[in-house]
């Protein structure tokens, strides 16, 4: 008796220890199913030890606890994983199978002479566990952990049927298969894939499935009514257990539907609020604030670690992209093993094309929460891309209108003036500047460097790169290599929303110098003229 109880306690402790070690080593996304599985093995070991001491009432209590924990465990495995992204149909079929098995056991096997030693409640429960484990195997046939869970469930069925009929070491070893297989399932690396989060697949509502669920829920009360009308209820226990199982499955089915509906309403409200905020955003900081507020509303509290909206990123600056065709989003690892980083490139919806200036939305947080809101976050990134492009277009139109207004106002002015971008490309040149170079229009991509003498380009470039206003003395060079001495005054308006560039005003100072000084960079040969010393002094004192 003692050695028999010790054997089951050691088997249970070994299985529980294997599950604890496997969870800590492989770190699955959701640990709750594995803890429930460990609890069911502990309850089963306690029940077997009580059975070895002939404590039948206590053993049945532990067996009932074991079955409940195992049922919860397998239902947890079917929630939000890649193997069973949608468990609606599975729950409907389990409820129908539960009622069908009850009817077969009561009216078919009972009529032919039911074996009293075999517990019908245990057999029905074992078949349901086999059905769930078999569904896991069917979803991914290469998952070793799923096969081991199925083998353990089959061992439990073999033990519940074979041991009451023929007690002995052979039938008793079926329970050893259960302990061993469920412990090995947690040790195999494929156990992490059983609980990897996956997007919910919403099934459309169909009348036939609703009728099927209603029929399944009505099965146990109908059997109870028939037996009561016959005069005596002989299968009250199995009817009660089956009724509880069917009721739990029905409640789970309704809870899943309510949860999906609530999540859909939350996403819809969050995206609608974010869209309104993005439409009203007038600048980039407002877009960033709207995106952060939307992420906080779409995802559960305390599940987001970092949100970053990088609106201007070149392809080389983007986070590592997966190999293959362009994806709307991809995943990266985070510092915390339980976290993930979701990268959503800014692709305007519904155009599904990349923005010319690039950009990406990066969110780091709990991977289960990110997977659940994956589709909504992709839509949010698209809406943010549209808002940023709209702001860029409004600014570009404003600058164009400003340039056209400036062109119309100073059409007849004699001032040499230009508006250049941060990269020194000339966006606007006054008519006097174009006349100075003898051109009706400057080339579309002309830069200020191309108008300057090569010896002055570095000086002017360094001055314009610095922040603030200033004045530089330099010389322009025409196409015929003649030079014009100018006093270049620039205003730094790169932070101005309408200009976003530098306004350059040039004053011709060539007439203030003699004819020889109008070519300051010309090569001199022979005897140095007297004006060289005078020009050297002028250069020292900046003209």
Automatic annotation (TrEMBL):
The keyword Transmembrane helix applies. Keywords: Membrane, Transmembrane, Transmembrane helix. SMART domains: PAS. The keyword rRNA processing does not apply. The chain crosses the membrane at residues 6-23, 59-78, 90-111, 117-137, 144-163, 175-195, 207-226, 238-255. Residues 402-465 form the PAS domain. It holds the Pfam family PAS_4. NCBIfam families: sensory_box. This is PAS domain S-box-containing protein. It comes from Actinoplanes regularis.
